Amino acid sequence: MVEAVGPGRLPARAPRYGRCRADACHPGAMDELVDQVDELDRVVGVVERGEAVRRRLLHRIATTVCRDPDGRFLVHRRAETMPRFPGQFDWMLGGAAGTGESYEEAAARELAEELGVRARPRFVLKFLCRGGISPYWLGLHEVVVTGPLRPDPEEIAWHAWATESELSAFAARDSFVPDAREALARYRDLAPNTPSASPSEARARRK
After folding, report:
1. Residue 124 near residue 190, CB atoms below 8 Å
2. Phi-psi category of residue 71: left, alpha or beta, with phi > 0 → left and psi -120 to 50 → alpha
3. Is 56 left (phi over 0), alpha (psi -120 to 50) or beta?
4. CATH value at residue 167
5. For residue 108, is it within any domain?
6. What share of the chain is helix, strand, coil (3-state, %, to 5)?
7. pLDDT tens-digit profile of 51-94?
8. Confidence (pLDDT) at 148
9. How far apart are CA 182 and CA 176, in angstroms?
10. Which residues are CB-contacts of 58 (< 8 A; sequence separation ≥ 6)?
11. Which backbone phi and psi does 119 adopt, to 5 degrees?
12. Cβ–Cβ under 8 Å, residues 25 and 63
């Protein structure tokens, strides 16, 4: 059973929106300066985030997957006031990397801003995400969270710890953020180097 750790009940369904993560959570973030990169992820200039989205210029997004000591994944529902994917489910936290900011630095900053967790996430993978709104390089990180969570209510409406099978059920919904689904598939492709199950699930598989 999904263990809810935030207020509210799990909604049965959320509305379906666009195909690609294109906001850095706060509306004002579209005025932030970001590095424009090429298809090899090399910096070629500096632009405002909003311009990068409008002109479909490649830039960098840093995200983090949170797990608890038992190996469960943190799943959350985005606030209804979010400019992109309002009310949709996600298993990643993050946003745009600022100009001169590494993926790891951006992931740590976003983790502190969105969840109140100060930690150094571990880089896992990156890939070129070509969504319907704006393409970008997505850097995925992972961190084990042992302390309390303090989610920003302007960004996170609900959150819960979920096992791998429960996460799969979330990912099968139409209301799961599309690039989060692609990132999950790539994350699982790294197995067995990347843990993909809680200890109890792993024991069950070995039986």
Report:
1. yes
2. left
3. left
4. 3.90.79.10
5. yes
6. 25, 30, 45
7. 999 999 999 999 999 999 999 999 999 999 988 889 999 999 99
8. 93
9. 11
10. 36, 37, 38, 39, 41, 52, 128, 135, 136, 137
11. -155, 170
12. no
